[in-house]
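Case study 2.
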Amino acid sequence: MTTQIFVNLPVKDLNRSVAFFTQLGYTFNPQFTDEKATCMIISDTIYVMLLTEPFFQTFTKKEIVDAHKATESLICLSAGSKEAVDEMIHKATAAGATIPNPATDHGFMYQHCFDDPDGHRWEFVWMDPNGIPEHQG
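Prediction:
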């Protein structure tokens, strides 16, 4: 069996989050969707569980981080080209995301990011495997 990853994120308004990520082109698994949570499909092996904050809290005794004020994680996904990175950032901006930083271009790697309505940071990166500099150790 291939290893799968399920990233769990707390959200304040599940319907708002579903609408936001739908505008970015993502789909959701109805088998794992109800009024408390949904399963957003990133790929055949990557999923994001968007959980209402009260439901998320049932999985931990720790305080839920306000992602508008603190960073708990940075979610980084690969893209097939620089243009694909820019397209995703454009979709996110149109859907209401905020852009915290300008794009960075290192030649072999191009990266840009946005913060979703709950403040979670999403990074998209394109890398040219033939252009990665050799490690100088």
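The first strand starts at residue 5 and ends at 11.
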